[in-house]
Amino acid sequence: MTTQRTKQGCDLPTDDLSLLYSAVFRQSAEGIVITDCNNRIVIANPSFCQLTGFAMEEIAGQNPNFVVATETDRHQYAAIGPTLESNHCWTGEIYLLHKRGNVFPGIMSVTIVRSSDGNPENYIVTIRDIERHKLVEQALEESERHYRTLAEVAPVGIFHTEPNGDCLYVNSRWCEITGLSVKAALGKGWLGALHPEDTQRVGQEWYDAANTNSLFKSEYRFMQPNGTVKWVLGQAKAELDRHGNVVGYVGSITDINDHKAAAATISHLAHHDALTGLPNRLSFQIQLTQAMATASRDRDRLATLFIDLDRFKSVNDALGHNAGDGLLVEVSRRLRKCVRGSDIVARLGGDEFVVVLSDAGDIAAIGRVADNILGALRKVFIVENKSLHVTASIGIACFPEDGSESEVLMKKADTAMYHAKGAGRNNVQFFAEDMNTAALERMRWQQDLQKALTTDQFELYFQPQFRTVDRRIIGVEALLRWNHPREGFVAPERFIHIAEESGLIIPIGEWVFDTACKQLRVWQDAGLTELTMAINLSAEQLRCPHLLPFVENTLAKYRLPGKVIEIEITESAAMEDPQACIRKLSSLRNFGIRLAIDDFGTGYSSLSYLKLLPIQCLKLDKSFLMNIESDNNNIAISTATIRLAHSLGLQVVGEGTETEAQYQFLLEHECDIMQGHFFSKPIPADEAFDFISKADRFDGQVQRLVAAKTNRFSFAS
Ligand code: C2E
Ligand code: MG
Ligand code: MG
């Protein structure tokens, strides 16, 4: 059996191979003709006959050219054959002619078979009908055109990207929405054009959708190159090839900007007060709960300030609702200015506002904010060209002290606000329960003290001092009085220490010193040239670096020599920093000022330091004169103190001389100066002037005068 080696190198029996070739030739879907070297058809397969409509007998001996439809293609065909090399194949698209006369597109291939000497032996011509294919291609082209047109007129933005997200196609609506030109978009990823706040989220959503081959659907913002922000609803899906590989993405974006704006307006209206734009009650409750959760997590204090305008109704009644509305708008503006951006300011309705201070700090800090609010609201309002004055009452409740639920906190702030109204309006009240009531009280006093300075609530009273030896009034002690608008006269004992703690003692002390000097000037001008003025100074004032220049300037301002002033400091003030105190007192002494230790015996009573202090006077504390006729301890202490002082060359003032017995005791023990209710209570300046002018000598007549003046003032406790 002869065999023949195929190209692939397998040996097949020649007979088998012939059978195989013959089967391929007969069954091929392509039309095949084999010609001789002169291009005359030797044989054609059934497909060729079927494609061309000719029977084998009709075409045998013909040039295959006869099925080529056009002259040009025939020329082209004729030129191909001889130029072909062995095993080379010419392929081209040409129009073929059917026996019926119809022309159809086909693909023709021509292969030459050469003899061993290289001469053409046969040509193998194949033809394939591509009419169907052409029709499909045309249809595809057409539909692509349709889709493109459709995409261009679509009201949504359409895009097509590569698998990596780079844009391959964007329609004009897409360009309109994103603000990008086609040129700027193509070849680039659209994620880069998003609002920076959305990029990461949308990237993740896109990634997740791509990974699960699901529909990407998300709302996000495009940031147009001119800065305009556009909300869109974007949808996209991966395009997969036959093997399931992603070959790109197609998607759309819908402009939802108006929808978003409308939704935001609706939500704003639902959560905000239409007049002032502040959060309304509903929104406030949500915000307060959130703020409390944050405060609880961060262990911060949160303060709820319930603010109610005082007598707002009368504004509405007198000036009409428009003016009332204008006022509320301005109030909300001022409230916002008083607090940090992170704090909540809301309008609960009517003239009720609420402020929530997050990370509020201590009670004093909260009080300062509340005070600022009162101050801001007190300033004149100009509404419809009219000046309006309003005040507000503020109630404060704090988290966590007053409650851990928003309703409880609000209720307590509300209660505190009603207390503020009850306390005369235009003031702040902390809700007080078991919380450090004393601290709250102090803080209230601090606020009141601050106000007292600027609103002339202070006054000086003067208590005469008698010299025992000639029973003449040689001086007065200036004592501070506070005429509190609600509490009436408040005793210094109740407020001096608060003023000291808060630092307010500096301005208050300066006011005292200035006012006392001014008064002394008046009295000197009226003839009381010998009178001295004793002024109390606290430790804080002594520490103040401006004390010396202030004292010097004030003396100069009222043309007073230092010697007419006596400065009283307590033992404890002197002992705080003895060295510094000695230096300060020495400087004061250099101005000629007399120096006295007040309330002697109640503090350290350090005799060794006493010796070092440049003082001239000791004021025996009034507690040592109590029951002096019978209390042996007091007799011993007072006697020893007077003796000690004299031995150190100091004068002694018997303070708090109330009774005849005390007077007699001090007289007997040669106490130098006496001061107390037995002679006179502290009295206002004009009364003090009368008293001093008339009471030249302390005798029976004066005693009656004194008695008549007692009990004129009682302090609120
Ligand atoms: P102080 O300096 O020892 O003033 C004497 C206090 O004794 C005064 O009380 C005075 O009213 C009171 N007093 C005088 N005579 C009698 C008496 O016969 N019987 C009784 N029971 N009391 C008498 P006041 O005015 O209430 O002042 C109390 C304290 O407040 C003063 O004690 C002083 O430490 C302080 N203070 C008053 N004014 C000022 C001030 O301007 N600056 C400073 N830093 N402290 C002041
Ligand atoms: Mg005093
Ligand atoms: Mg005293």
Q: Separation of termini?
A: 140 Å
Parts with pLDDT < 50 across at least 5 consecutive residues: 708-717
**General shape:** rod-shaped
**What is the β-strand count?**
29
Q: Output the CATH class name of the largest domain.
A: Alpha Beta
Features:
717 residues; alpha+beta; Beta-Lactamase; Alpha-Beta Plaits; 4 domains; eight-stranded mixed barrel; five-stranded antiparallel beta sheet; 26 helices; 29 strands; 25% strand; rod-shaped; binds ligand C2E; binds magnesium ion
Description of the structure:
Helices cover 44% and strands 25% of the residues. It is built from 26 helices and 29 strands. Strands 20-21-23-24-25-26-27-28 form an eight-stranded mixed barrel, surrounded by five helices. It has a five-stranded antiparallel beta sheet with strand order 4-3-7-6-5. The protein has a five-stranded antiparallel beta sheet with strand order 9-8-12-11-10, with helices on both faces. The longest helix is centred in the N-terminal third of the chain and has 23 residues, at 131-153. The termini are far apart. The structure holds ligand C2E and magnesium ion (2 copies). Ligand C2E is lined by residues 463, 479-480, 491-493, 496, 509, 512, 536-538, 568, 598-599, 622, 655-658, 675-677, 682.
